Inverse folding.
């Protein structure tokens, strides 16, 4: 189930979007201002619908904070060609002008989610000397294969998807649950230790950093 983050300060519009997209089977998160929205981005939704004129951080200020692999659709009353060009150049994949037809918006959301899923599925992830090929389920360091267990692979994939960012232990456990049943809180330390050792043996250095009291991140 795809997760959609709606950042919109108008209560009526936010509620309508949440209601109609929920009917389509999407998991919906909402924020009524830019500051709240910027925090929810860390949960990595699959797509973001965002107004531009928001209390707190504006849409333009939020855009640079959004990972490039998360599609963003701007929903705004600003309708000039210059505004649209600026937003599309700044990272939005689409621009919908208020007032909008809800059926058209739902159709655009579906198209962009399909496109994003197809692209992400085959994209090779890279961080430092490591390459992870999701299609082949292969991991290489300096072009040499590294043999990982299913659980080690799941951990590494999550860390590389958000390379450079700290992933909390709870988020790591939650996101890995769809790929492996073996990663639970009591086993995380062992799996992480084994993964870090294999990567270090293959590349000669530490690739995964433990951030005390928070979680882990992989070096860029």
């Amino acid at each position: 189930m795809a997760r959609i983050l709606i950042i919109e300060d108008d209560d009526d519009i936010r509620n309508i979007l949440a209601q109609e997209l929920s009917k389509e089977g999407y998991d919906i998160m909402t924020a009524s201002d830019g500051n709240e929205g910027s925090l929810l981005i860390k949960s990595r939704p699959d797509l973001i619908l965002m107004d531009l004129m928001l209390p707190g951080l504006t849409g333009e200020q939020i855009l640079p904070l959004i990972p490039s692999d998360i599609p963003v659709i701007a929903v705004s009353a600003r309708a000039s060609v210059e505004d649209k060009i600026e937003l599309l150049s700044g990272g939005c994949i689409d621009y919908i002008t208020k007032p909008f037809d809800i059926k058209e918006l739902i159709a655009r959301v579906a198209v962009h989610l399909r496109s994003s899923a197809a692209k992400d599925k085959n994209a090779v992830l890279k961080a430092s000397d490591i390459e992870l090929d999701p299609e082949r389920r292969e991991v290489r360091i300096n072009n040499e294969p590294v043999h990982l267990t299913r659980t080690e692979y799941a951990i590494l994939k999550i860390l590389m998807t958000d390379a450079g960012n700290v992933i909390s232990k709870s988020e790591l456990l939650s996101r890995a649950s769809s790929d492996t049943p073996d990663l639970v809180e009591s086993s995380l330390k062992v799996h992480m230790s084994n993964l870090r050792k294999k990567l270090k043996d293959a590349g000669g250095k530490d690739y995964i950093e433990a951030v005390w009291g928070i979680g882990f991140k992989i070096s860029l």
Summary: The chain has two domains: 3-121, 125-218. The helical segments are 11-23, 34-40, 59-62, 81-90, 102-122, 150-161, 169-176, 185-203. Residues 102-122 form the longest helix (21 residues). The CA atoms of residues 88 and 94 lie 7 Å apart.
